[in-house]
Each structure stands twice: as structure tokens, then as C-alpha cells.
Amino acid sequence: MSTHWPRRRMHHVFAPDGRAVIAAMDAGITKGVAPGLERGRAAVKRVVDGGVDAILATIGLARAAADELGGTGLILALDSEIPSAGYGVEQAVRWGADALELKVFPGNPEVTKMGELRELCAEADRWGMPVMAEPIPVGFKALEAHTLANIAHGARVSAEAGADFVKAQYTGTPEEYREVVEGCLVPVLALGGPMKPTPLHALQMAHDAIEAGASGIVYGRNIVEAERPDRMVAALVEIVHGGASVDVAAKHLNVPL
Ligand SMILES: O=C(CO)COP(=O)(O)O
């Protein structure tokens, strides 16, 4: 856990064990009425019912679903907005957010957003507001760039820029992903990405990330597009916080309606 003074807010995201299950629900800013998020307030209620530690959401969803969210952690997503120094920090404070999130694209020949991340971290630090960076090597579509080395690099440069924790793509074996975690300086959480072939694959990735030393997971589509997002969250909680095996956690997914 962070040793500097935003750590009270960090405790709203990370449980006492230092780990977090976070539902990424910010897709609406680019996709509009996105799958699983059509009824925004109900979607938030489902993940809260499942025991999620925090959600990642835009200001619009956070405001609309404030009552459903209750005291659950809130990471305010700044992406897809026009980034400028300190953009959004004051709003995050006013809305009681526990952290801010910015996506960056290390290695992108045109826009890396690393400068914005440094400025945001400096401004957020003035307010005691933690920042979660999401470094995607080159860009979401540049799959060939999403190598272990590039992911480890992206995580490290994000920490060097001042991020308090980092959301990084899971790749390789737990031993390999450990390079990302141990090289990063700050806690790393595994990013979900596109829907896995089955829910068990999503659970397995969470299990492997934890084995690699990750501090938790940030899953979007694999939670909100699940048949029962509440049960998917409950299963992930059992793995991330309870140390359960995939088989044991999967029992949550089989409970009759
Ligand atoms: O993380 C996201 C946006 O920040 C979206 O999450 P997924 O990639 O897990 O759907």
C-alpha cells in the first residue's frame, strides 16, 4: 500500500489485504449504449451486489449511479476527454472519487499522452488524489506491440511518471507477468480485455495474475457482459481476496437463478 498521503483514498479502492477487484464501466464514453451497460444504474448495482471493491467510470455514469454505488470505491476515468494538465482533478475531489484514471500509449509515434500523465500526477498529488495509469503499448489495435517487454516498459514508465497504481494487460505465464509486476515500483492490476472464450478463462487469468504478484484485476467486458455480472464479481472476489482456485470460485457461476 502506498506510503504517501493519498493512502486514505487508496484504502477505498484496495481492501485491507492490499488487493482489489475493479469493474471497468467506462466504455460508454466511446461506445455510447455499450453491451452490459445499457441500463447504467442497474449495471452498477449488479457489480456492487457482487462485492466489487471499486468501479472505473466516467463522471456521467458515476453521477447517475451515485446511489447504487454507495460507499464502493470510484475511479474516475478521464480518457477520451481532452487531456490537459490537471484536467478533472477538482471534479474528482468534488465527487468524492478515490482515484483518477488515464490511458497512455507508450511507443506511439504520434501521441503517447505520457506528458499529460506526468502533469496529471503532479496536479493530483497536490490534492492527495491517487492516479491509476493504463499504459497500452502503441495503441489498442497495435496487437503486435503488446509484448511482455513493452507491457513491462509501459507499466514502469507510468510509475516513473508518478502513477500510484497501474492497470496493465496480462500476458504470458505467471512467471513472465511477474516481470511486469516486479519492475513497476507500484501495484499492478491485470486488465481484462475482450471477452474470453468462457468465464472460466476470465477466472483463470485473474488467478494467474495474482500468482504473478498482481494486486488485483480491472475487468470490463468480462464482468459487465457476463451472464450474471454479480456472480462473476463474486467469483473474482473469491480468487483475488480469498485465494480460491478457479474450480472453487466457479461455483459462484453455477448458482441457480
Ligand atoms: O478497461 C477498460 C477501459 O478502461 C475496458 O475494460 P475491458 O478491456 O476489460 O473491457
Describe this structure in words.
α3 runs parallel beside α12 (229-240) and α8 packs parallel to α9 (174-182). This protein has an 8-stranded parallel beta barrel, surrounded by 6 helices. The longest helix is centred in the middle third of the chain and has 14 residues, at 114-127. It has helices spanning 7-13, 28-31, 40-50, 59-64, 66-69, 89-94, 114-127, 148-160, 174-182, 199-211, 221-224, 229-240, 246-250; strands spanning 20-24, 54-57, 73-77, 99-104, 131-135, 165-169, 188-191, 216-219. The chain has a single domain (9-253), classed as Aldolase class I (TIM Barrel, Alpha-Beta Barrel). By secondary structure, it is an alpha/beta fold. Bound molecules: 1,3-dihydroxyacetonephosphate (13P). 1,3-dihydroxyacetonephosphate is lined by residues 24, 26-27, 56, 134, 191-193, 218-222.
Structural class by secondary-structure content: alpha/beta
User: How large is the radius of gyration?
Assistant: 17 Å
Low-confidence stretches: none
First-to-last CA distance: 38 Å
Helix count?
13
Number of strands: 8
Strand and helix order: HEHHEHHEHEHEHEHEHEHHH
**Can you tell me the overall shape?**
globular
CATH architecture: Alpha-Beta Barrel
Q: Strand share of the residues?
A: 5-15%
Order of strands across the main sheet: 1-2-3-4-5-6-7-8
The CATH fourth-level homologous superfamily: Aldolase class I
